[in-house]
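Run log // design_07
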């Protein structure tokens, strides 16, 4: 499957439709800002002010629920890839696409449910002040990872990469550097390494925006 068609399908999946999807994206960001991942709490234990007992309690929560995440991530990746393949066909089969979408939606819903469940249990461990610190750290993490709006959103970057790729092909340029960044993006995203994924996209955009080398 050609890279440009995969990007097009992925943009469709992630961008939605117009202002309504923009509001939905903002709502999702608000939800993420209320999630308290155990790995964040443990990594920032000193900044949050955890004592030894609280640290152990968070570790137990993580040990109980975290093992479910890799399986769900793998299911989401497989269902997403299958859906992208269906959408990339010249004439997608509506029933097959919707059935695959339902499976992807179910996996994503369960993934979010586990995240919310971990957050609820962690909230019972933290004091109000500690919870405020953890939420502030989570908001900072989201900002640094690129969970923004407008031209900096992931769908917007994907669309720019798609357009740049098509332009390079029209100009007869070697698309290998862009393809390498795209593969890095895919690998990082599949593993949940969103900062690395966005870095790969940013590198692709830097290549696209750079002046064309002289012959």
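design_07 sequence
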């Amino acid at each position: 499957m050609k890279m440009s068609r995969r990007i097009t399908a992925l943009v469709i999946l992630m961008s939605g439709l117009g202002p309504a999807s923009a509001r939905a994206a903002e709502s999702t960001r608000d939800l993420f800002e209320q999630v308290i991942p155990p790995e964040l709490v443990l990594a920032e234990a000193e900044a949050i002010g955890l004592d030894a007992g609280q640290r152990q309690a968070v570790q137990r929560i993580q040990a109980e629920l975290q093992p479910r995440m890799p399986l769900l991530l793998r299911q989401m990746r497989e269902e997403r890839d299958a859906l992208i393949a269906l959408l990339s066909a010249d004439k997608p089969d509506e029933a097959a696409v919707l059935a695959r979408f339902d499976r992807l939606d179910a996996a994503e819903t369960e993934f979010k449910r586990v995240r919310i469940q971990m957050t609820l249990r962690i909230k019972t461990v933290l004091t109000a002040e500690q919870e405020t610190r953890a939420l502030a750290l989570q908001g900072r993490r989201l900002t640094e990872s690129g969970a923004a709006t407008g031209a900096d959103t992931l769908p917007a970057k994907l669309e720019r990469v798609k357009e740049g790729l098509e332009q390079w092909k029209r100009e007869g340029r070697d698309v290998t550097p862009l393809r390498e960044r795209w593969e890095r993006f895919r690998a990082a995203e599949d593993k949940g390494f969103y900062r690395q994924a966005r870095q790969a996209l940013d590198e692709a955009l830097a290549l696209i925006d750079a002046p064309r080398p002289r012959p």
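The longest helix spans residues 94-125.
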